[in-house]
Amino acid sequence: MNHTTIDIRRSRSVAIAIFGCCIFLHLASCNTRDGITGLPNPNRLPETHMVVDTIIRAGDDRFTSTLQLHWWGTDPDGWVSGYEIRLAGLADTAWTFTTSNDSVLLLNIPAGSDTFDAVFEIRSVDNTGAVDPSPARLTYPVRNSRPSLTFNYPPNGSNPLAGAFPVQSFPVLHFSWQGSDPDGAASIERYELCLNDTSQSNRWMSLSPAYSECILQAEDPGAASSACLVFPGDRSTPLADRMQGLLIADSNRLYVRVIDRSGAKSDWIESRSVFVRAVTHKLLLVNAFTPSAIPNQNADSVSARMAGQLALAGINQYHELRIFERSGNSFTQLSANNATQARIFDLFDHIIWLGGGGYDFDQNAALAQYTMGPFLDGGGNLLMSLTSSAGSPVTGTVYELFPFDSLLAAPDGFGFLLTDTATLSPLSPSYPVLGYDRFNPAVRPLKLRSGTTGLYKANIWLRNFSTLTLTPYGGTSTVMALRYNPINQSRFAFTTLELHSLNRTGTLSAMLSQLLRNEFGIP
Question: What is the secondary structure of 157-207 as a DSSP string?
């Protein structure tokens, strides 16, 4: 059996060899000096295929205007190098080449139409450049979907740096929204905005879909009503057009609607209401205290004390902003973000900022760092009082705007102490001696920046944590300083003590008169 198999294989090998020789001789006999002769077979054209050629849908069952198409092609004597696709029946019927087998297309449904029958044609292109003479066709019944819109608001929470949507505000407002369209985000054509009254079309303003937020700032913050500068997105320059209809000393709502490429419109969506306050004085008191059982930490008590001292100094006209006031867990006067808050501060020429200690020190310092730049760059004058504590940061980027480089820490094993009989000695003869009216177990002296002038130093004690003994502190004890910027003529005075607690000697109003009226120039 094995011998027979071997003979058969040998016979096959011989036959194959003979067949190969015959083929070679035949080809050789066809050769001429110019090469192979004869007529080549004609190129066979490619074919294009889609899953179906007709889709029947009606009414709400039609497709949205964002479609995904799939196709393929075959070529009997080569290969498909790509495809050409077009939407037939429209003005632009040019073929577009692609090597892909699918595509996501957004249709521009004709304006005023809710439905449209889109006819797609796809033809294969082979490796020689020949195209399928009978393109695959597919009719898609398309329905335009109406766009929609919702407003976005900062989350409720305990961190003021996250911002808030205020219940009341000076006339700089921030709004944010989100437009959506079932036909795809690229289908959104524009937004239309209006303040308070949508019935007056001359008040509508169009905004590019590239923006989904804006800041509105009154041109005349002291008038009964005002046109608004519009800052879309994060732009620092306003649009040429103005938003009309801002009501001052009254409640305001922004209305926004979204319009898609076919002209379909969402309903007008209204924002939450915000009461807008007029700006009629150039001094702002920022009261960063909140309700408390401790009088010198209570917002109402601090406000009353400062009102009395300012009146004694001859200053009676100012506005008050309770920046950390809350209703439940929501801030009521804090702006939505730092950019909006900075624009509010920049409405004023002079600001007194009063804040508490502990963790509030960090929050006050950070918020001021992020929002007071434009105010100071524009020549504003700031007096800030923040009660420091042992946990306040010694140094950091949060102090870049401040008159001091860092807070001084007590030596290891010791703490700084200021008693309720402590005095503050002026470092300038034009300022009176001040008396502190409570114990402060964590006062922090200031390490001043270059160009900053010390105004007061305090008689601070060092307390030994082990023995509880007290010894006088002999190091730098500056607790109030003033920085003047000759470039923009701004002044920034800062103290690590509660300003309203510096009246034990009855001289706080005299100090305020010297600083606010003589240094800041408040009339």
Answer: SS-GGG----SEESSEEEEEEEEE-TT-GGGEEEEEEEES-TT-GGG-EEE
- Under a CB-based contact definition with an 8 Å cutoff, are residues 383 and 351 in contact? yes
CA distances from 383 to 279, 286, 325, 483 (A): 20, 10, 20, 10
- Is residue 130 classed exposed, middle or buried when 0-12, 13-18 and 19+ CB atoms within 10 A define those classes? middle
> In Å, how far from its chain's centre is CA 457?
42
* Max CA separation in the chain (angstroms): 130
- Determine the 3-state secondary structure of 235 from DSSP: coil
Cα distances from 273 to residues 164, 194, 324, in angstroms, run 13, 14, 19
- Condensed to tens digits (0 to 9), the pLDDT of residues 130-166 reads 999 999 888 777 766 789 999 999 987 768 888 999 9
For the CA atoms of 94, 96, 97, 102, the dihedral, rounded to the nearest 10 degrees, stands at: -140
Nearest by Cα to 301 from 310, 309, 292? 292
Separation CA 177–CA 298 (nearest Å): 36
Q: Cα–chain-centroid distance for residue 234?
A: 7
Beta bridge partners of 215: 174, 231
Q: Look at residue 146 and give its three-state secondary structure.
A: coil
Residue, of 111 and 212, whose pLDDT is higher: 212
Phi, psi angles (nearest 5°) of residue 471: -135, 145
**Which range, 56-60, 148-152, 353-357, is most confident?**
148-152
Tell me the residue type at 432.
P
Structure tokens at 170: 């000076």
- Look up tokens 């407002």; give the residue: 173
Mean pLDDT of the chain: 86
CA distance 111 to 293: 64
H or E segment to which residue 140 belongs:
strand 136-143
pLDDT band at 66 (very low <50, low <70, confident <90, very high): low
pTM: predicted TM-score of the whole model, two decimal places: 0.77
Element (H, E) at 21: helix 2-30
